[in-house]
Design goal:
single chain, alpha/beta, 7-stranded mixed β-sheet, 18 strands, 40% helix
């Protein structure tokens, strides 16, 4: 795992390139503290900070092709690199190292953009073609690894994290009000959004090529959720699920360093821990979070799993004050507005994992999206068939929706919800039927802005432009939206990749293996009760996991939100309502923000509803983003902690040609 940064077509003099790329890489050194290197050309500078995991001794970057034409800066892991290496060797390629990075470069040299569909991995990379002058940027199919681009005075800037742009001369951050409105409403940035003017993400499964003034964009991977042929029997389906998952774990255990597992106590991570534990010749290292607030704690299940599997287990215990104290620094790494605090304990957990000497972690992300684990999929089934059910059937189905939410428990709670659900049985937001109820909470958060506009304009455009979207079933549309919004925009990025790489820890997600996702699509809703989430996954591992974990039902990972701030840091009331800061930010509505903040702090913590909780965390994170990025305090004014190895191909390198390190 690594971090990359660079710029192309800059008006800077080439003699400045080395110093600028050094400073850009210094902003993201936490992603790769083991090595640093850069490639310099008259037209481009790009570099990498490396977290060494595969081929520790000779996997340094940047890497150039044997003929010197292509140069690669690569962030990620290619899990099927051994198979591709064999294929390329058969075509006559010779490899100097055992790294997956050189396999990526060889594949690009052999197939160009056509290599991308062959890749099973989590990656973002830059390839520079010294012959044509083209810069190619590409990102993996599920958006596991980030890649941002920005235009500044004619130059193209790119980086794994936006904070690298703070080191480019003259670059500054400014909030983009329409994008903030969309982020607040849909809970996370959409595939191309950043929340700032002039900065975009390369969406998952896409590439961008720059050659002079010409820019070419393309999509190399689509999210295919159409159901393929299913096996005839449930037992055969169970065996197929096991086979695909075990193969996915096997390739993600490829590493020259020890691999651990995040074990939350839920089904998904327990499945991964079980598979991994059977494949190690020493006790598997597992890690988890415990909460002082019992409402969010799963420590009993975590302990039972660790004892059952015989893992070497360690935990981080998190209190309200821990969340609030770490919140600013975690937001600095998140870089985008956030709607819940659950990413902060993950930041603390990753810090602990790295202190224990672990660089690579397997996790259960992607299981709920692939195997329909979330309540929103059951919501969609219920709402789609609403008019075909009587109230008794509706009540029975409601009892299967959200057993972990207090207001859903019992007959009285279900009756109260009947009226709410009735409001969403018809589609009022084109293409967004499944998410209309969720987006009501986001509509409230958008009121934090002076000019929210249509907060759903961007997501409506996203689905309207997707080929074949209208032909999907309501549940498949819900699944597509989860993959393209919350999963990539929050779970894999803010809560996952960013918090782990803040401490130099790489996370790998077996459930997001393309073969696993395809298999799940062919099996979902074909067997068992459709309201029994992840039915086949439970069946596949019921005989090897503790019964308590298999039967407890979906319990999503959550953490205290506004309550943590109200209980432990009342000074946030003044921070969030400071008139000077609110006016400086500009895009917020100071009057609404003050009234809203007073309401939160004047209410009992347990009385704050979901939409208020989300709006509060969005507000707090936006104020810290203003501090870190708009004011520029996130910039690190320190030198790299390791030497910068330089490949210098500038025609006028001046004294830099004789200087290999800074």
């Amino acid at each position: 795992m690594c971090g990359i940064a660079g710029f192309h077509g800059s008006s800077l003099h080439p003699r400045e390139y080395q110093h600028v790329i050094h400073d850009m890489l210094a902003q993201i050194e936490h992603r790769g503290p083991d090595e640093a290197g850069c490639f310099l050309d008259d037209r481009l500078a790009m570099g990498t900070v490396r977290l060494s995991i595969i081929d520790l001794a000779s996997g340094s970057q940047p890497v150039g092709s044997a003929d010197g034409r292509y140069w690669l800066c690569y962030n990620g892991e290619l899990y099927n690199y051994r198979e591709l290496r064999d294929e390329l060797t058969a075509r006559g390629f010779t490899f100097r190292t055992g790294s997956d990075t050189e396999v990526v470069l060889g594949a690009w040299a052999a197939w160009g953009h056509d290599c991308l569909p062959r890749f099973n991995g989590a990656f973002a990379f830059a390839v520079f073609d010294t012959t044509t002058g083209e810069l190619h940027l590409a990102r993996d199919r599920f958006g596991k690894r980030p890649l941002f681009v920005a235009r500044h005075e004619g130059a193209w800037l790119f980086a794994s994290e936006m904070k690298a742009f703070l080191a480019y001369p003259g670059f500054s951050f400014e909030f983009d009000a329409p994008e903030l409105s969309s982020i607040y409403a849909t809970w996370a940035p959409l595939p191309g959004q950043s929340g700032y003017r002039g900065i975009e993400q390369i969406p998952m499964g896409e590439y961008l090529t720059v050659r002079g003034d010409t820019v070419r964009r393309g999509r190399w991977a689509t999210l295919d959720l159409t159901a393929g042929p299913a096996p005839e029997s449930e037992q055969e389906a169970v065996e197929l699920v096991r086979a695909e998952l075990e193969a996915a774990v096997d390739v993600r255990l490829r590493s020259d360093v020890e691999v651990g597992v995040y074990a939350s106590g839920g089904l998904d991570s327990s499945v991964i821990a079980h598979i991994a534990a059977r494949r190690t010749d020493h006790p598997l290292r597992t890690f988890s979070i415990q909460f002082e607030d019992a409402e969010f704690d799963e420590s009993a299940e975590q302990t039972e799993l660790a004892q059952h599997l015989g893992t070497h287990h360690s935990t981080v215990r998190v209190s309200d004050s821990d969340i609030v104290d770490a919140f600013p620094e975690a937001v600095r790494h998140a870089e985008v507005p956030v709607f819940r605090t659950a990413f902060v304990p993950m930041y603390l957990l990753a810090r602990h994992v790295r202190s224990e000497g672990i660089k690579v972690i397997l996790s259960g992300e992607g299981a709920d999206e692939a195997f329909l684990g979330y309540g929103i999929f059951k919501d969609t089934q219920l709402l789609s068939a609403w008019h075909e059910m009587d109230d008794d059937t509706r009540m029975r189905r409601m009892g299967q929706l959200y057993p972990y939410l207090r207001h859903f428990n019992g007959a009285d709670g279900h009756r109260r919800m009947l009226g709410l659900y009735q409001q969403f049985t018809e589609e009022s937001l084109p293409g967004l039927f499944s998410h209309q109820m969720r987006f009501q909470n986001g509509r409230f958060a958008a009121r934090l802005l002076r000019e929210p506009g249509d907060p759903f304009a961007a997501v409506k455009e996203l689905v309207a432009q997707e080929p074949g979207y209208e032909r999907l079933s309501p549940v498949q549309k819900a699944q597509w939206l989860e993959f393209r919004t919350l999963l990539s925009g929050y779970l894999l990025s803010t809560q996952g990749e960013r918090m782990a790489l803040a401490h130099g820890v790489e996370n790998r997600c077996p459930f997001l293996d393309p073969a696993v996702v395809r298999r799940a699509a062919s099996l979902n809703l074909r067997f068992g009760d459709p309201f029994d989430e992840k039915y086949l996954l439970k069946r596949a591992y019921a005989d090897v996991l503790p019964e308590r974990i298999v039967k407890k039902g979906k319990f999503p990972y959550r953490a205290p939100d506004s309550a943590a701030f109200v209980r432990s840091r009342p000074d946030y009331r003044e921070l969030l309502t400071d008139p000077g800061t609110l006016e400086e930010i500009g895009v917020l509505d100071p009057s609404f923000v003050r009234r809203f903040t007073d309401r939160v702090f004047d209410s009992p913590p347990e009385g704050i509803g979901t939409k208020e909780n989300q709006a509060f965390v969005f507000l707090a994170s936006t104020l810290w983003l203003h501090h870190w990025y708009v004011r520029g305090h996130a910039r690190r004014h320190a030198r790299l902690g390791v030497p910068l190895n330089v490949v210098d191909r500038r025609s006028d390198a001046l004294s830099a040609r004789t200087e290999n390190t800074l």
